[in-house]
Amino acid sequence: MPDRNVPRVLVVDDDARVRRFLTSALGAAGFAVTATGIGAEGLRLADSRPDLIVLDVELPDLSGREVCRRLKAAEETAAIPVLMLSGVFTDVADRSQALEDGSDAYLTKPVTSRELVAMARALLRTARAERRSHEHERAAEALRRRVAQSKAMVDVARSITASLDLQGVLDRIVDEACLLLGARRVGIAVLEGSEPGPNIRFRAVRGLSSAFAQRLRPLSWRDGTTPIAIQERRPVWTADILTDPAIELTPPTRAVIESEGYRAVLSVPLLAGDRPLGAIVVYRDLVGPFSEDDIDITQVFAAQAAVALENADLYRRASERADKLTTLSALTRLITGAAASREVFGAVAEAAVRLLTARASQVWVNDPASGMLRIEGTVSVDPVLGENLARFKAISHGDGLTGSVFATRQPLFVRDLRAEPRFLNQAIVAEGHVSAYAGIPLVAAEGAAMGVLSLLFGERGDFADEEKELVRLLADQAAIAIVQAQLYGEAERRRRQAEEMAENLERSQGQLVKTERLRALGEMAAGVAHDFNNLLSVILGRAELMLRRVRESALVRDLEAVRRAAQDGADTVRRIQEFTRTRRTRAFERVDLVAVAREVVELTRPQWELEAQSRGVRYEFSVEGTAPPVAGRPEELREVLTNLVTNAVDAMPDGGRCTVGLASEREWATVSVRDTGVGMEEDMRRRVFEPFFTSKGPRGTGLGLAVSWGIVTRHGGTIEVESVPGRGSTFVVRLPVPVALPDSVTGLTVPPPTHAARVLIIEDEPEVQAVLADMLREAGYVVTVAKDGSNGLDRCEEEPIDIVLSDISMPGLSGWEVAARVRARFPTIPIGFVTGWGDQLDPERLARTGVSFVIAKPFQTLDVLRHVAQALTTAQPGRA
Q1: Per the domain annotation, does 649 fall within a domain?
Q2: Do strands 52-56 and 8-12 pair parallel, antiparallel, or not at all (unpaired)?
Q3: How many whole angstroms separate alpha carbon 201 and alpha carbon 568?
Q4: Is 478 in the same domain as 497?
Q5: What would the pLDDT profile of 756-807 be if each residue is shown by its tens digit?
Q6: Residues 6 or more apart from 37 whose CB is under 8 A from it?
Q7: Edge-to-edge, what's the strand order for the sheet holding 656-665?
Q8: Which of 393, 467, 566, 649 is most solvent-facing, going by the fewest CB within 10 Å?
Q9: Distance (Å, rounded) from C-alpha 598 to C-alpha 600?
Q10: Secondary structure element (H or E) that encloses residue 758, with its range
């Protein structure tokens, strides 16, 4: 195989001696030489594309000039340099004619080897330079095309992201496609509906008649390149659509094509994943193929058109969903704010008509006393239809379609009421007002049937799953309104009672702050904590019981606020107990620091939002990062973060940003609270964790950070602060990550009683006694109560008792004495203390007395039920 790096020279000369001379001279200079004495043979050998042709003017068959003209006329050989030689034609006119014929140089014979080689090399250098120049020009032109293509793609992409105007975006795409493809006609077709045939409609066209989009409607999946491309999900093109046997044109489609006058067609599908949305189509008037570049560019435009269509569809569905959610949210707000259920029923009926395009909607409510369903809300888009519906104000249970829905508690969807004899109001069907029906039972959370939501429609197709789900959601709203009407009175009374208790608690807390700090702390730890815990037991217990019974969101929110207030009161008592070291540490559990951080930001939100409003400033709070769970007390760690967040707000009187950051550092989980406030001087920074040290004046107790330090220390962690005056402070809490985490209390299940276990409650506070009894009864226990120790011992003698729960501080016999006597008389009965002294009791004394467990006030339902269930499980069988 010849070396492509060696220049190849073709010598055409009829003189054998000259051929040998030329071959020898050029070969010695490093050229690969092929020689012939015939002009026609030289033209044939030139097809191998030599680098240089040395051509004699005089040849036996064709003149050298004719050979040169033919070489320069052919595209394949035009760029090959030609050196003409002649020993006869040597004057200026001969040279000029040779150059006009296309020769690149002209030498007269005899020629020296040196002159020949020099000229050959010069011609080759010139040829190489010209080739490089042409290559650069082609590359520059290709680059210009690519830049134009990229700019067009970017412009279209920006249009897609910046505009919700689908038609405008599609028009922009066909315009850019025409420009880049050099095409006069481009269209975008969209696949519509779910029919089995090609339901294709053109949404944007250029260069085609105004009637094209309406006239060109393919009748089969082979009726043109566009339906084929959509069905097969691949680009399809034809050089001549009128003669291509692979295209099965129907007469109407062929007529449109002939009237428009195009022949070559390229169709590229618009795909969302594997789902076809339509196609972009390029039309050309002349018969001919499409290049790979044409297909590639069109595919890019197809992808952009698909994104535009998908975005438009997503926006439409999002708008519909937002409308539904807005309506449901408005209904929820109405339910939570309206005492009159009839107003809510009307709003539910109106929402059903609007969101589901119904002609009428009715809310039927059960009247248990009469065994009837009565209309409490009706909305109709047609006054005549409304008058006809008003004829039926009440129906019996099980009567008609609506009565059947109530009796069976099953939804019912009927597409054709003409074939449904159970529909009572056949007059409105006969008059053409309605044709379809939907009925959904209104069912309370505990399963009780409350009524029916019914809807009437005109002519329609089958009910979609999304429509059925929406009807169910509206029915749930109506059911909530009914339950709210029944619970409203009792809930209001309980809420007022809870608010009064919370107010009393707040006044008591305020009084404590006014007393001498150190003495108040000691007294609280010793005695007042017990009384507070009794009060808080009632508030917290009642709130939890109500939360288990109520489903209405407003009441749940209010009761949750009461429960939180009670828990915060308990935390206040605990904080003082912690600081004075009178409280023993409780068992740790699994704590999710991320959840605690987010909860603290939300719990403190009302405080700092009100602060911002009163100061006319703006606060920004965020929770960033993540950290592994730790072992600890969630309420204590929540208190630490609450103190740090509150201090951050106080440190930003002009507003600012507070960031709660979470991270993991080897075996440590870290939580940082960073503010952009005023910062601290070094002497203040060193003292921030000292008890009673405060920079807040009379507003501060000086206990917040001291208590936080104690909590973190008892968790085996550290708390540090860094601060720069004028730039803010950062508090960093580091907590150890244990190898094995304890179970979360909230995740523990309470085993149900294996039988109707009998529980004796000995408690001198009536409200505490009642709350405790209600908790246990709801859990399935048989409860006996006693107001003091003597009465409790009498009950043990008179009735079979499986477990005893007793307070400690009671008139007459104390809890300790009761426990000792019960243990002596009935050694198999488990005994538990429920007391405001809680965690301060001596474990050794508890063991000596035979007390199985202690429940600290204020107690939570889960704690009570778990302790009782565990004690009964491990106890020996009680006496009969």
Answers
A1: yes
A2: parallel
A3: 65
A4: no
A5: 799 999 999 999 899 899 989 988 999 999 999 999 999 999 999 999 999 9
A6: 12, 13, 14, 15, 16, 19, 59, 60
A7: 619-625, 656-665, 668-675, 728-736, 718-724
A8: 393
A9: 5
A10: strand 758-762
> Residue 24: which domain range?
8-135
Within-domain flag for 593: yes
Q: Residues 603-625: what's their mean pLDDT? A: 91
Packed helices 465-514 and 529-549: angle between N→C axes, nearest 10 degrees: 170
> Of the candidates 711, 765, 720, 734, which has an alpha carbon nearest to the alpha carbon of residue 577?
711
Task: List pLDDT tens digits, range 259-295.
Answer: 999 999 999 999 988 889 999 999 999 999 998 888 9
Per-residue pLDDT at 7? 92
Give residue-wise pLDDT tens across range 395-431. Answer: 888 888 888 899 888 998 988 888 888 888 887 877 7
Q: Provide the number of structural domains found in the chain.
A: 6
pLDDT for 849 equals 86
| Residue with token string 């053409």 | 432
Surface-to-core class of residue 640, CB atoms within 10 Å of its CB (0-12 exposed, 13-18 middle, 19+ buried): buried
C-beta separation of 75 from 148 below 8 A:
no
**Residue 874 pLDDT exceeds 70:** yes
Query: What is the β-pairing status of strands 619-625 and 394-396?
Result: unpaired
Within its chain, how far is the Cα of 487 from the centroid?
36
- The CA distance from 698 to 514, in Å, is 10
Burial class (CB in 10 A: 0-12, 13-18, 19+), 600: buried
pLDDT band with cut points at 50, 70 and 90 for residue 747:
very low
Residue 230 pLDDT class (50, 70, 90 cuts): very high
For 317, the token pair is: 């569905």
Cβ neighbours of residue 246 closer than 8 Å, sequence gap 6 or more: 238
In angstroms, rounded to a whole number, what is the distance separating the alpha carbons of residues 647 and 693?
Answer: 13
Same domain, 307 and 351: no
- Maximum Cα–Cα distance across the chain: 151
Q: Is residue 402 part of a domain?
A: yes
pLDDT at 426: 81
> What tokens appear for 479 in the block?
């059911």
Asked if 643 contacts 701 with a C-beta cutoff of 8 angstroms, the reply is no
Q: Which two tokens stand for residue 156?
A: 């279209």
- Distance, CA of 451 to CA of 345 (rounded, Å): 11
Cis check for the bond before 827: say yes or no (omega within 30 of 0): no
Residue 381 and residue 451 share a domain: yes
Give the C-alpha separation, 670 to 736, whole Å: 9
The residue among 199, 205, 201 whose CA lies nearest residue 189 is 201
Among 97-111, 138-152, 445-459, which is the least confidently predicted range? 138-152
3-state secondary structure 351-393: HHHHHHCCCEEEEEEEECCCCEEEEEEEEECCHHHHHHHCCCC
Domain containing residue 388: CATH number: 3.30.450.40
pTM attached to this predicted model: 0.36
Can you give the pLDDT at residue 524?
A: 52
Which amino acid is residue 136, in one-letter code? H
Peptide linkage before 110 cis (omega within 30 of 0):
yes
CA angle 315, 317, 319 (to 5 degrees): 65
- Say yes or no: 722 and 612 in one domain: yes
What's the token pair of residue 238? 């034809």
State the CATH number of the domain containing residue 28.
Answer: 3.40.50.2300
Tell me the average pLDDT of the chain: 82
Structure tokens at 393: 């104000």
